[in-house]
Amino acid sequence: MGMVAVFDVGKTNVKLSAASADGVIVETLSAPNVVRDGPPYRHHDLAALEEWLIDGLSSLAGRFDIDAIAPCAHGSGGVLVDPDGAAMPMIDYEQSLPADVEKAYPALAGPFSDRGSGIMLGAAHLARQMLWIEMHWPERFHRAHAFLATPQYWAWRLCGVPASEVTSLSAQSHLWSPAGGCPAALVAKRKWQRLIPPLRPAWDTLGRLKPDIAARTGLAPGTRVLCGIHDSSANFYRYQAAGLSDLTVVSTGTWIVALTDREAPDPHVEKPGRTCNADVFGRPVPGMLTMGGREFSAITAGSNGPASRQVLEGLVRSRALAVPFFGSDDGLFPGAARRGRIEGLSAEDPGARFTLGVLSVALLTAECIEALPPAETVVLDGSFVQDPLYGACVAALLPHMRVLVSRSTTGTATGAALLASHTIRREPAPLELERPEPLHLPELTEYRACWRARAKTMETHLDRV
Description:
The protein is an alpha+beta fold and 465 residues long. It folds into 2 domains: 3-227, ATPase, nucleotide binding domain (Nucleotidyltransferase, domain 5, 2-Layer Sandwich), CATH 3.30.420; 233-465, Nucleotidyltransferase, domain 5, CATH 3.30.420. The protein is built from 17 helices and 23 strands. Strands 1, 2, 3, 6, 13, 14 and 15 form a 7-stranded mixed β-sheet that branches. The protein has a 6-stranded mixed β-sheet with strand order 18-19-17-16-22-23, sandwiched between helices. The chain has a 3-stranded antiparallel β-sheet with strand order 4-5-9, with no helix packed on it. The model has no long low-confidence stretch (mean pLDDT 94).
């Protein structure tokens, strides 16, 4: 096999990487994922992003023998399309909804077993985006040919073949029941079946690169375009491809996303932060979801690391806390949205703010892991693990669990690249893991109890209202 080009669409940034067949990232290009204020609403600039993608593919084609292109993306984006392109701009999922859509959606969304997640902030669910367009731009909605999750949108732009894919639909779209392995009841209720193309596996070759794009990029006309995958599911697949099981993987970035291959004892019960995703094979994957990256940014306030063990010990002993949540999402504690605050920090020392941020996201991570069915191995990866104290804190908070760390910053791209060799792989994919350096801090248990009690005060307040 030649190289794989991975187009990774994040909420804040996009990346285009060249990877070897075994998932080793050789080069990465990146750019901001630009959002326009409107009209008709805040949306991603798909035209500019496509030009950047074409330029990037052209650049990589000059240095690498690209055999396949694998798209991956976050789980809250989708595009309504007609034969010529986007029928409506791609909604920024943090965009607030019109009052009529906000009011109508909860009654339509169905039970947790159908949705696979709670009803989250803004326009986070593809089903809610579709409802908004249908209610406010009915003519465009009814003329459209498909609604594509972001990975499949870009695959369609590159090869012209529309498809759906199970990890993308299971990533809080509310269009698919991961537990049931079938479309959510909402799809038939709204007569949206015609807009959901047939499912294809993430590793399937949907088609070959369009001739005009091949000519513009210099890539071979026979370049394969894969169906594509949800980003955290791609990262989870990396560990599956390496032969691991009985596993919980925590991906960190804008979101803390914890996924496990263990079976949930009560999969139909809705709890704060709980999700049910699917892996590339369509099997239900219990998960937890909270916006840890935004918490970290709010707490650190632009200060730089690394975190300090000495400062950490001082924070724990003085009970200096960052009480969640600073963002607009309740996350793990109902009623906590926008009520985040810092308590007990005696000085505005940037180093203390950064260390407190690391400690706070470690606490959120531990909450997510313990809310899932116990697994033999817990692996932490993503942006947070670049600070050694993050892994050390999580391991100290969960002394009864085997916690490992992947220092790779390219897990999503690696997992997506491995899709290209899925059908021919005969041995486990390479993987490097390490144990965090031990952190001996007995006071951490009491500190966590104090933090949890403060975080739950908003939930108690809601119960009294």
